[in-house]
Design goal:
six-stranded mixed sheet, seven-stranded antiparallel sheet, single chain, 32 strands, Rossmann fold, Jelly Rolls, alpha+beta, elongated, about 775 residues, 3 domains
Length: about 775
Amino acid sequence: MVTFIKKLSWSLASRLLGRSIRSQQRESGQSLIVLAFAFLGLIALLGLALDLGLLYVERIRLKRAVDAATLAGVVELPSEEQAFTRAIEYLRLNNYDVGNDVSILVRGCATDPSSGELTNLITPTLYITASNPRATFILDTYSFQSETHDCSLANKVFGTANKIAVTGTVTVTMNFMQFFGFRTVQAPDSAVAQNITNLDVVVVFDNSGSMQGDTICYDCWHETTNDVETYPFPSNGYYSPISYTVLTNLNLCSAVSEPYVSGSRRYIIMEAELYSRNDSVWDRAARQTGRGYWALQRGTTGSRRSSSIEGDRSAHVAHHPYWTYGQSSPPAPLLGRFYTLQDAQNNLAPRLEYDFTPDWTGDAFIWIRAQGGGRQSFLVDPVGNNFVRDPRKLYWAVDGGTPVENSSAPDCNTTYDYAGGYNPDTTTCNNRWGWIRLGSISVTADTEYVLKLWAGSPGYEIDKIVITNDSRSSASQIGVLTYDSNRGRPATVGSARRSACDKCNPIFGLQVDPSECTTPYHLVTEPTNRLADDLFSDREPLRTSQEATKRFVKRLDPQYDQVGFVGFDSGIEVQSELVCIRRQGILGNPAACYDPSVQNPPISYTTVLQTIENQRASGGTDIAEGMRNGLEVLGINVDGRGGVDNLCDGTPGSACGRGGAAKRVMILMTDGSPNNNPGGACDDDPSLWPYNNDPDFDCVIYYAKKARQAGVVVYTIGLGNGVEPELLQAVADETRGTYFFAPSPKDLDAIFDQILSNIYVRPIR
C-alpha cells in the first residue's frame, strides 16, 4: 500500500510539472511581443525628448535674439526705419542669417520696397526676402504711432512711435518625430520695448522774490551782457570784491592810527565792511538754520553799475534776516532770527569787532551810520506771546563791557530792504540811512580798544563808524558826518586792523596761499581762490538753482532729447519752447544746439540756457500758472487758449512736443507755497485740495490731473523749508512722479541725477 501511494504521488507531480513548463513556454512568447512594443515606445520617447530639446534650444535662442533686437532697435526711435535697421543688425549678430534663410517683414514708417519711398506700411510688408526661409521676423512700430503721425522725408519726420515690437517665428525640423507625422514645428516668440530715453522735458522754475532771500552779498557780482556767446555764469559778468590794493594804497592798515583832524577835534573813521573780526559763519555747508550772520554788501550808483573801477563802489555790512517768503509777519521758516539784549549779553548774537586807538585822553563819542531792518524785523513779545515788528535794535560795548541796547536807527520799510546791494542814494530806502550816536566812553591816549557790535533786528545795516572827541550831539553840526551828502568822510589811516588787513579774508576775493593768512579767522590749508566763497555766489538760492538746472540741461542728448523752460512768479511767465531736433533737420549736427555761430539756429539748448541765466527773482508764487505753461510747452493745451498748437512751425503759440514719440516729463521746482493762481476752471472745484479753503492750492492739483491725463510725469522739487511738502507730494503721486526735498540748492545736482536714473529704456513685454 505504501508503495502504491508513492507511485501515485510521483505520477501526479510529474503531470503538474509538465503543465507548468508548457505554460511558461507559452507566456515567454507573449513577453517578447510586449518587450518589442515597449522598446518601440522607448524609442519614440527618446525621439520626442530629443526633438523637444531641439525645440527648447531654438526657443531660448529665439528669445535672446528677439529681446536683443527689440532693445537695440528701440533706442533709435522715433526714427522707425533706423530702429528696424538696428534690430535687423542684432538679429544677424545672434546668428540669424537675414536674407538667406531669414525673412524680415516691417509694419510702420519705413521705405516701401516696391516704391522706394518712405511711407507708412499699415500691414506687415516684406522688407528683406530670404532665398530659403526657415524663420520670419515681423518688426512693428505702427501699433505705437501717435494720432498725429506723419511719415515724410520732405518734412524730416521719420516716425513718431516710442515702442517697437519684434515677433519671430522659426521652423524647427523634427528628427524622430517625423515618423509620427510631425516633420516641422513652429517656435514663436515676441518682445515689446518702450523708448523713454527720448525725452521731451520742461523745467518749471520758481523765480519768485523769495528765490533771492538767502543771498549773502548783494551786488558782489554783476552781469555785464546778455549776449548768447557769454551766457555762462560768471563769464557774463564780473565779481566785485573789496580792493586789497586800494586798502593798502590808502594806508588803512598802517600800524599807526592817524585820525582826521579839524581844529581840536579828532575823528577815527572806519568802513564797517573792514571789521577787525566777524564771528559769523555764512558758509552754507556750516551754517545752522535759525542763526543770523553779518556779511559784506556791495552798493553802486546807476551809472557805475557797469563800471569795474573798484574805487567807485560802496560797501557796508548787514545782519541778514530770517526769510518770510514775502509774508508780512511770521510765523515762517527761519534762516536767521531776531536777537535780544540777553542774547548779546550771553554772546549768542552775531558779533562784529573794530579795533581803534585814540590819540587823545578823555571822552570818546561813538557814531555809526546805519539803517534798521524792514518788514522781516519781528521778535516774539514775551508778554503777549505774539510777533511784534521791531526793526531798530543793535547792541554794543567796548572791550569787556556789558552789551547795551541802542534802538534809534531809522528803518527801511521795503519787503526786500536788504537786497540789491543798496547804496544809500540809489535805493527805495535812500532817506533811511542816518547817523546814530551810540554813546561815549573814557579813553587813554595810545591805548587800543575794541568796539563790539551785536546783531539785533534782522536786516540792520551799518556803513561807517566814527570815534571822536567831538562832543556835539547833533550829526547835522558835525562836518565830518555831513560830508558827501551825509555819507561821511573817507576812512582814516590805520583804521583797519586784524581781519580787515588779512589777504585771506573772502571779502578781498584773492588767490591766496596758507602762508599769507595772518589771522586765525580765515585760515586755508591749500592755495585757494576766495572768489569761490559763498560770499560771491550771486542771488541765492536763485543762482545755485540756475547753475544746477543748466548742468541738467547740458546732460540731455540734443540728438534725442528736447528741453524747454518756464520761469514763473506772479507776473508774465518767461518761456523757452522745446526744439524738435529732427524736424529742424540737424540730426547730423547736434552741436548746432549749442553753437551760437550757426546761422539762424533753431530754438535750441543755447536759447534755453540763455533763458535760465536771465531769470531774476521777483513777485509771488503762481505754481499753477507755471504748470499750465509747462504743459503748453509740451504741446498740451489744457485750457483751450487761442493760438496754441503743436505744429512746431515757429509761429507764436506753436509747440514742438512729439507726443507719444517721447517721454513727456515736467520738473517743477519751487521754494514756497502757492499764493496766486491763473483763475478760470482751475479754481472751480474746492474738493481738489480739501485741506484748506485756498484756490491757489486747488489750481495746482487741477493741472496735476491734466498732466496725468496727457501722460506727463511730474517730478517735484521742494527747495528749502518754505515749501508745502504735502502739496508737492500729491502732484508727484497724481502723475506717477517723485517728490524730492532739497534742504539747500546744493542738493539739486544729486536730485537731478536721481530723476535721470528713473528714466530709462525698458522692455514692457
